[in-house]
Amino acid sequence: MKAMFRAPFFCTLVLSLLTRAEDIVPQTITLSSRVAPAGKSLKRRALSPENIPLADFFKGTDLQWFGNITVGTPPQDVTVVFDTGSSTLEFASTLCSTCASQIQFDPDQSKTFVNGGHTSTITFGTGVGVDPVIGDNYQLQLLNGTDTVSVGGLSSPNVPLFLITEQTPTFDIDPFSGIQGMSARAQGFFAALIARGLPSLFGLFLTPLAVGNAELTIGGFDQSKFSGDLTFASQAGHGATWELASPSIAVNGKTNSVLKTKRTIIFDSGTSNVLFDTDTANAMYAFISPEIQPNPAEPGTYGIACDLIPTLPAVIDITFTSQQGKPFNLTIPSTELSVGPFANNASLCQTLINAFDGLELVGGSLLKHYYSVWDVGNQRLGFAAV
Ligand SMILES: *[C@@H]1O[C@H](CO)[C@@H](O)[C@H](O)[C@H]1NC(C)=O
Ligand SMILES: *[C@@H]1O[C@H](CO)[C@@H](O)[C@H](O)[C@H]1NC(C)=O
Ligand SMILES: *[C@@H]1O[C@H](CO)[C@@H](O)[C@H](O)[C@H]1NC(C)=O
Ligand SMILES: *[C@@H]1O[C@H](CO)[C@@H](O)[C@H](O)[C@H]1NC(C)=O
User: Fold this and answer.
1) pLDDT tens sequence across 221-231
2) With 382 labelled, which of 126, 134, 233, 319 sits at a CA distance of 20 to 30 A?
3) How far away, in angstroms, is 348 Cα from ligand 4 center?
4) By alpha-carbon position, which residue is closest to atom 2 of ligand 4?
C-alpha cells in the first residue's frame, strides 16, 4: 500500500479527526461539472478532460495503480501513483544512487528544470504494498524544483515538484518512479490546469487486474466506465484530505455500539489496506472470526491461517449519507479479506483491516469496486456501481 501521506500531512489528518464531523445537511447541487466562465477572455478555451490509462501493481492482490506523466523539455516519461492521500509531486531522479530499479528523471537533460536548492526528508506512515513501517524504513530525501509537467497531453509550465535524491531499499520493488498527489485542494499541475479552464474534478476507475482498463480521467469522469447514477456525498473535511462522515459500519450484516460510532473516514487511493481504530478493528474482526488475531511481528496487522480464509464471509458495509440526505453503503466484499502471507510465516495470511489509532482510512480495496469521482470544485465525492 505505501500510504502516500507524509509526516506533516499525516499530522494534519490526525488533527482533523479530533474535530467531530458536523451533521450533513442535505443539499441540492447541480450534477454538471464546473465549467470555466467565458467572461474575461473570450479567446480562452476551456481545456477538455483527458483519460490516462493506469497499470496495476499486482502482488497477489491489487495494491496500487500508476500511470505515465512527462516532465521537462524535451519531455521525459515518469510513472506515478495518482494518490488522493497526498498533495505534492515527487519522483526518482538521476541524482539518486539508490533509485536504480526505477525510471529516473534526468534534470540535466531538461531545458526548463529549475533547481530550488532546498532539500528535505519525508517519512511514510505505511509501506509499499501491505508491508509494515518499522521505524523510518520508508524514507525519501528530496530536492525541490520546478519544471513543465504533462498529464494525458495536458501540459503546465513551472510546476513545483521534488526530485528523489535518496530512498530506503523498501522502495526497490516499486514499478513506478513516484507519486502525484491528488488531494482535495488542487495543487501543482492540476491547479494550473484548472486556472486555465479545466473542470476541477477527476474520475478514478481502479479495477482489479482481471478486469483491467484502469483509468484516471482528469477534468471530468468517464461515463463509459460505469452504469447507473453517481451518488455524491459532501466532503466532511475542509482541508486537503478527502474524507466523508460515516454513521455506521456493518460486518456480515451485523453491527454494534462500537461500529455505530459516528466517524470520519479518509479516502486514499494510495493505500491498499483499510485502517481503523483498534476498538473498531477488533469489533469488525469479532464478526468475521475469533481466530483472526494480531500478529505481533508486524504491529497493527492481524492474521489467520491462510487455508481458513476461503471459508470466511467478511462483507464490510460502510454507510455514508448522500447529499440528498439518504444513506448509502460502500461495500468491501469477502474476496478482499486476505492480503497475502506474512513474511515471518508463509501459512499465516494477513487480513485487510489494520489497527491504527487516530486514523480511519479506506483505499484501493474499496475503491476498486466502484467508479469514483473526486470533485474538487464542489467538495464532494461521487460513487457509481461498475
Ligand atoms: C507508460 O509508457 C510506456 C512507454 O511509452 C508504455 O510502455 C506503458 O505501457 C505506459 N504505461 C501506461 C500505464 O500507460
Ligand atoms: C524550493 O524551496 C524553497 C524553500 O521552501 C523555496 O523558497 C523555493 O522557492 C523553492 N524553489 C523552487 C524552484 O521550487
Ligand atoms: C447498508 O448495509 C447494512 C448492513 O448490511 C444494511 O442493513 C442496510 O440496509 C444497507 N443500507 C443500504 C442503504 O443499502
Ligand atoms: C504459522 O501460522 C500457522 C497458522 O496460523 C500456525 O499454525 C503456525 O504455528 C505458525 N508457525 C509459526 C512458526 O509461528
Assistant:
1) 999 999 999 99
2) 126
3) 6
4) 348
